[in-house]
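Running this now, will post back.
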Amino acid sequence: MTTQQRLGTKRLVVGAHYGTLDFIVQRCTAIIMAIYTLILFFGFLFSSEMNFEAWQHLFTFHLGVLPVGQLLATLAFFSVAWHAWIGVRDIWMDYVTSAGLRLFLQVLTVLWLVGSIIYFAKVLWSL
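Update: finished.
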């Protein structure tokens, strides 16, 4: 295949549907974060007073034996982390041309996100 054949509208693209899953994941995580933001907003709106106990009750709300507040917060936080990973990874892929530096930055991003998730779990689930 010559260079002329690979250019233009019929260009050879590596991998089918490249980026489609990331696009869908980013939209789904954005919807989860928006819904969680609305839940928090209405929780604060209908709270009688804003103090530590009301804040803690919002996150430790139980429906029977199911810790709904903690599960929703965990789902929202994992959505934030996954959304951030896709976004920051794409920034590194688009704007950092050195493969070694790009890999280094991606590893730092993963370590930061994993550390954030561990800290989140320690704080929320030890209430």
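The chain has a mean pLDDT of 87. More later if anyone needs it.
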